[in-house]
Model the fold of this input.
Amino acid sequence: MRVGVGGAAACFLFTLSGWPPARAKYDSGTVETDEKWVFLTKFCFLATKGQINYHIRYPQEKYNVNLLFYHDEKSQWPSVYKNRSKDCWSKEAVAAIEKNQLFNLTQSFPLSGCQVMEENGINYTDCQRGLGFKSARERWWFLAVSNCMGGGIRLDYKITMTNGKTLWRRHFSANQIGIFEVNMLSIILFIILFGISIYFARK
Ligand SMILES: *[C@@H]1O[C@H](CO)[C@@H](O)[C@H](O)[C@H]1NC(C)=O
Ligand SMILES: *[C@@H]1O[C@H](CO)[C@@H](O)[C@H](O)[C@H]1NC(C)=O
Ligand SMILES: *[C@@H]1O[C@H](CO)[C@@H](O)[C@H](O)[C@H]1NC(C)=O
Done:
């Protein structure tokens, strides 16, 4: 696996400009809000293959929820995050403008992998899907959920994000792989220098 310096730098730059590096590659939680649009999680994907698996479940009531994917280009995430001049609909439109970045979490939208399940007398929309990510460079992806119709968002989610298939690297964000390799290099350099200094100390 090649870790491009340019791509890693892009991930670092994003980190410096306000988003801390993603640590947890497994994210789960409950959203319970009156907001119409909520940020869920983010991940830095390598230029090679990355994968997201999501499992999202919410009570099937009057409203439906959409899952939105944004990447780190200026016209995408930076244009919607904390942008007060964009309402929920225009934030959805930014994701929808590119192919396969807006998933209606309903049974009638086959791509999203949703089923209706009854449990304790309540019908839930239960969505599970794995998505492969491939792009020309390393980039951040940001996930949000929305319900622009109003009535709030209540859901449970489990999201796993991985880079490639090598076991010891699987759960690192691309930017952390960079850090890991820099650390290994400093340890090796340290051992070499330590060896040399012992050698001269004994002379
Ligand atoms: C915020 O949204 C407005 C309206 O869509 C847009 O003109 C502006 O460029 C956005 N701000 C940023 C920082 O992208
Ligand atoms: C999916 O959601 C968008 C935005 O809310 C909406 O415009 C569209 O009609 C929905 N599509 C389906 C198939 O439900
Ligand atoms: C759940 O959905 C099924 C099939 O759509 C329906 O027959 C049933 O009445 C629903 N149950 C509740 C509690 O809404």
